[in-house]
Design goal:
Organism: Pseudomonas psychrophila
Protein name: Lipoprotein
CATH architecture: Sandwich
CATH class: Mainly Beta
Strand content: over 45%
Strand order of the largest sheet: 3-2-5-8-11-10-9-1-4
Keywords: Signal
Length: 138
């Protein structure tokens, strides 16, 4: 029974990963997610409502609050010795008041030590918002 559940879970996860992204609606703004220092960044909440697909945000023009889940590793050690990496899970929230229809944005999450940060870039690569709130576990 345990093997069956593991196989079923693996199949369901692979089905989600292979689902293509929908096409961008030109009447809405699209937000891509990326990280260069972490393992995973996923859309968690839009205006305090849980997302059904964590790979992107697509929002109406105007003001929105975005929350992403950001997983990364930290190395801790004692007496000058590094241990195995430890997982750190953070929820990072940012607000932006001026999403424009048909525009693409990029939300980049990054880590520095035990801290998580996020920036929202417009299509020209300019920073338009930074994290407002960061909650991390452990």
């Amino acid at each position: 029974m345990r093997t069956f559940l593991l196989v079923l879970t693996a199949c369901l996860l692979s089905a989600c990963a292979s689902t293509p992204l929908p096409s961008a609606d030109p009447k809405m703004a699209w937000i891509d997610l990326e990280t260069q220092t972490g393992k995973l960044v996923m859309a968690e909440r839009l205006d305090n409502r849980r997302m059904t697909d964590g790979r992107y945000f697509q929002v109406t023009p105007g003001s929105h609050e975005l929350m992403v889940r950001f997983d990364f590793e930290v190395f801790v050690g004692g007496m000058g010795m590094f241990s195995d990496p430890q997982e750190r899970l953070c929820y990072v929230t940012l607000n932006y008041d001026n999403f424009q229809p048909g525009q693409r944005y990029r939300l980049q999450a990054r880590s520095l030590g035990f801290n998580a940060y996020a920036r929202l870039y417009n299509a020209a690569g300019k920073v338009v918002a930074e994290e407002r709130l960061v909650n991390c576990l452990p």
